[in-house]
Design brief:
Number of helices: 10
Structural class: mainly alpha
Keywords: Chloroplast, Membrane, Plastid, Transit peptide, Transmembrane, Transmembrane helix
Strand content: under 5%
InterPro entries: MFS, MFS_Na/Anion_cotransporter, MFS_trans_sf
Organism: Aegilops tauschii subsp. strangulata (Goatgrass)
CATH architecture: Up-down Bundle
GO molecular function: transmembrane transporter activity
Number of domains: 1
Pfam family, one: MFS_1
Number of strands: 0
CATH superfamily: MFS general substrate transporter like domains
């Protein structure tokens, strides 16, 4: 859960911070257009959030194992932005509005994590969910500091948005998916029992 939270935050924070500059410098949008276009991913996220929760609830209500539902939702949350970032990072000669649509779609679909990773804390321990989220969120905040600065440094040194912004995010999305699909579980844990047994 910690690594997956870190991976999701890397893509989220670096894109939120650097997409306006990418839209302006790489897609040659003027500053006003870049600012207006930058609001699209958060708007798309609101729409996807209202879809992801009922989607997960309906699967669980129809008898699909909770762990499987969390894995499906998290895979959508990570593989979607990774795929759209791959398409946006290569020069396919696409018009700027198509690249904007790709990035908006990918970042919006990453909100499926709200029915994946972010529900798993409560799945495994209702009593300690807040502590578990505090732990994973603390590590998840690191990309907001380190990732944003590193992308800026890489853009300055490589002059490549593909290598600076998209490649690291794609790497973390793909490795985060692999780790999540391999190790994630929504099986309830009795931390009180584990603590008493260790004493």
């Amino acid at each position: 859960m910690i690594y997956t939270h870190f991976c999701g935050s890397w893509g989220h924070y670096t894109c939120l911070s650097w997409l306006p500059t990418f839209f302006s410098e790489e897609l040659n949008l003027n500053l006003t257009d870049a600012a207006w276009v930058s609001i699209l991913p958060p708007l798309g996220s609101m729409v996807i959030t209202s879809i992801a929760a009922p989607f997960a609830d309906n699967l669980i209500s129809s008898g699909v194992d909770t762990t499987k539902v969390r894995k499906i939702c998290q895979a959508i949350a990570f593989l979607s932005p990774a795929a759209f970032m791959m398409l946006s990072s290569v020069d396919l000669g696409l018009p700027p509005w198509v690249v904007v649509a790709f990035l908006t779609g990918g970042i919006s679909l990453s909100n499926f994590a709200l029915s994946g990773l972010y529900c798993t804390h409560q799945d495994i321990s209702r009593e300690y969910a807040s502590i578990l989220l505090g732990i994973t969120n603390t590590v998840g905040a690191v990309p907001g500091i380190v990732g944003v600065a590193l992308v800026g440094y890489l853009v300055d040194t490589t002059h490549s948005w593909s290598m600076s912004l998209f490649a690291p995010s794609i790497f973390f999305y793909l490795t985060g998916t692999a780790v999540w699909l391999t190790f994630a579980s929504s099986e309830p844990q009795d931390f009180n029992k584990l603590a008493s047994e260790s004493l």
